[in-house]
Automatic annotation (TrEMBL):
One Pfam family of this chain: Ank_2
Protein name stated in the entry: Uncharacterized protein
Keyword Membrane in record: no
Cited SUPFAM superfamilies: Ankyrin repeat
Length: 140
């Protein structure tokens, strides 16, 4: 049985598990750093950080890129999160960070191996998306 922080009730934990079947993904989505950290102490949960979830097939890395949550990404990187994972559209976490203008997240993903030339299924790379931004201030 995995340990969870005392602040998380059995009811809350069960609700999270029933939401997606991936309790780590749900903790990341909820931006609950303490719970995510606690869950990842159990090695059985570590593999779930790279599992696709939801109708779009986003991984934990996609979620933190969308949320611009560098602290959570740092935690996931310790557990070998795939920063080049693709969802059902071929979109990577870097695509999301670029589209949302999260410059610090873009830089952090690049520093940790994200590929700026990896194309999604509409044949756009994060680098091409950055060039298309209206404000044009995406700095690589």
């Amino acid at each position: 049985m995995q340990r969870v922080p005392k602040v998380t009730s059995v009811f809350e934990r069960r609700r999270v598990q029933e939401t997606s079947g991936n309790v780590v993904w749900d903790a990341v989505y909820a931006q609950d750093y303490a719970l995510t950290q606690e869950l990842l102490k159990n090695t059985a949960n570590v593999s779930s950080i790279n599992m696709q979830n939801g109708i779009w097939g986003n991984t934990c890395a996609h979620v933190v890129a969308q949320q611009n949550n560098r602290k959570m990404l740092s935690l996931l990187l310790l557990h070998k999160v795939n920063v080049n994972a693709i969802n059902i559209n071929g979109t990577t976490p870097l695509h999301f960070a670029v589209e949302r203008g999260h410059v610090p997240m873009v830089k952090y993903l690049l520093e940790n191996g994200a590929l700026p030339t990896k194309r999604n299924y509409t044949f756009k790379s994060p680098l091409e998306l950055a060039k298309m931004l209206p404000n044009g201030n995406m700095v690589w």
